[in-house]
């Protein structure tokens, strides 16, 4: 009698997807399994960050000019080493590395995928026990199989992503990933050390009551953004309000909550930083892909994030992402503000 296994592990789920596509090589499944393995190793350290000498700074700054936390460096090393030892990734780009890395060995050069990631987003929150996360983005390489990857393999529009996802190290550890077909969430079961399907076929609610933005920058935002924030603060019951403002300062947590419950996350440009703070390739593109597959929308205020042609690995972009109806109201405020 075969036990009635209703809960699929991440590996079982990705392998089951293979059944639907007999011509698939299984390379994407093994790449996602590798990412799952690295995230489990990071999770162990994140969960005991307060107990071991892994807090604090490494004493260096990354290409962003931000202090590199020991856990940042540890996380980056885990993802790079697992992917380099695997058979499904030809090279990587990371927030923690100035340039991309071509793995350039005989097996890796035959891999058809490249991976970009922010190994530990929100790391400023590590020392105060606030949820943090890993964000990843997967593309099919455009350079010739059998050769080392080149920069153009990483500078592709977000629309070309094969898959994208994130791990949130929070009250539980979740891995959420999207392919063009669907978005699925897996919760880590510590008892068996496996990610188990807990949120099948995630859909972003058409609307919501949560808006996420750093109010501290309010007077630095464009008029249209200020107008939309003002609209959010004045929603009455009959207008689907009142809204609530939720901003953890950890993008993975903020966007994950809004994806599940409905809402809008904004990191606009400011008068002093017109491109904002968030990185296009390994923060905004993955979340834009995930939220749009789930039925929401993501723009830079004027165009779809996924249609932006990247020019450099660490370029920034203003970022607005969330439920369609809230995004439409934002776009109306931005458009009418232009007429002002
Ligand atoms: P601010 C964390 O450093 C991060 O990159 C995102 O996770 C987060 O949404 C944002 O920066 C917070 O930035 O300027 O509001 O503190």
Assembly category: single chain
Q: N- to C-terminal separation?
A: 71 Å
Q: Helical segment tally?
A: 7
Identify every distinct bound molecule in the structure, by name, code or SMILES: 6-O-phosphono-alpha-D-fructofuranose
Strands in their spatial order, largest beta sheet: 4-3-5-6-7-8-9-10
The radius of gyration over CA amounts to: 20 Å
Envelope shape: globular
Protein structure class = alpha+beta
Q: Which regions are unreliable across 5 or more consecutive residues at pLDDT < 50?
A: none
Number of strands: 15
Largest sheet, strands/sense/barrel: 8 strands, mixed
Along the chain, the helix and strand elements come as HHEEHEEEEEEEEEHEHEHEEH
Kindly give the count of domains.
2
CATH class of the largest domain: Alpha Beta
Residue-averaged pLDDT, rounded?
A: 92
Looking at the structure, the CATH topology of the largest domain is: Fructose-1,6-Bisphosphatase, Chain A, domain 1
Quote the beta fraction: 15-25%
Percentage of residues assigned to helices: 25-40%
Give the name of the CATH superfamily of the largest domain.
Fructose-1,6-Bisphosphatase, subunit A, domain 1
Architecture per CATH nomenclature, i.e. the level-2 architecture of the largest domain: 2-Layer Sandwich
